[in-house]
Amino acid sequence: METFIDSDGNQLSNTSVFTFDYAGRVAVKTPTVLSQAESIYGCGSVSAVPFEDGGGGGSA
Questions:
Q1: Tens digit of pLDDT for each residue in 3-27?
Q2: Does 56 fall in a domain?
Q3: Taxonomically, which superkingdom (predicted)?
Q4: 35 assigned to some structural domain
């Protein structure tokens, strides 16, 4: 299992890192991810960012 740490070096629990979005997809909710998403989308209320679930050719 992966471990995640915050900017102070403290280990984060999986419930601090992952959640499920409204469609039941796994989503990330770390402060850095949320900050970047809010900046990209111009929205101050992003609560989680879902993983891609249907990429096509050329996606990772």
A1: 888 889 999 888 888 888 888 888 8
A2: no
A3: Eukaryota
A4: yes
Going from the C-alpha of 47 to that of each of 4, 11, 18, 35, the distances in angstroms are 18, 20, 11, 10
Indicate the number of domains in the chain: 1
Is 44 within a domain?
Answer: yes
Q: Output the CA torsion sign for 35, 37, 42, 46.
A: negative
Query: In the numeric block, which tokens belong to residue 13?
Result: 């629990």
- For residue 19, the surrounding DSSP H or E stretch is strand 18-20
List the 18-20 sheet strands across, edge first: 18-20, 26-28, 49-50
| Domain that residue 19 falls in | 4-50
Contact 16, 28 (CB under 8 A): no
